[in-house]
Amino acid sequence: MALRVAGVAFGMAAFTGTHLLLSHPPVRQDLIAKLGDQKFKGLYSMIALGTLVPTAFFYARFGRGVGPRLYNTTSLIQRLGGFGFKALGAITFSQAVTQPNPIVINANREPGAKITEKDVEAKGIYRISRHATFMSFALLGIGNVLTRGHLSDIIFWGTFPIYWVVGSTMQDERLKLTYPASYFENTSLLPFHAVIKGKQSLKEALAEMSPKSAIIALLAPVFFL
Ligand SMILES: *[C@@H]1O[C@H](CO)[C@@H](O)[C@H](O)[C@H]1NC(C)=O
Ligand SMILES: *[C@@H]1O[C@H](CO)[C@@H](O)[C@H](O)[C@H]1NC(C)=O
User: Fold this and answer.
1) Full residue range of the structural domain in which residue 49 is found
2) CA of residue 79 relative to chain centroid, distance
3) Which residues belong to any copy of the NnrU domain (predicted)?
4) pTM of the full structure
5) Taking the C-alpha atoms of 119, 120, 121 and 127 in order, what is their torsion angle to the nearest 10 degrees?
6) Number of domain units in the chain
């Protein structure tokens, strides 16, 4: 039991720890200088997948609902909240993958190429949070934290919302060196913050979203029942 909880904790620590280490500017710059930009990106993805995928398998097979139960999860509020957050996560994911993300597009540029305001214009879901893909996992994580209650579940699912904030903040710090400052003024990490500040229009965001992908994302789980 304790071993299984430790396994989940170890896996998530390996995933977040290696990710943070490779994003740490001195380490990152040193590796890019040694390996080149492309090889560094390959290594980065390989380590991310190589730690997260086995951890997710371990959790699914051995780690669900183990360790002490920290709270009960039977209340209607928790169940409705859990469903709501998971559904929002699925919708957010469907929009994040169907709308081009300025950060991903610009990651494939020549190093040192000038990034203009036009290159980093946020559309659709990215008007709501500039880190929408991370956010979709964070929402899924919050939904699962609400509806499960064992230590292993909280460690596994709780890492996603924390990592959304920490990892996105670190990525922003790095992008601020090359991106136009107005990108960060016009968008936000926290959902709807830029909309509330009047920098983004919710109407335009909704008009640019894909209702079809949202419906598919909500219906897809039915086929796995
Ligand atoms: C959960 O509910 C059960 C039954 O009502 C109760 O005995 C138990 O102490 C509760 N557990 C927690 C962690 O609140
Ligand atoms: C930010 O908003 C201003 C004013 O609406 C606009 O002129 C500028 O192009 C925007 N910049 C980006 C990167 O979206």
Assistant:
1) 1-63
2) 23
3) 10-178
4) 0.90
5) 160
6) 2
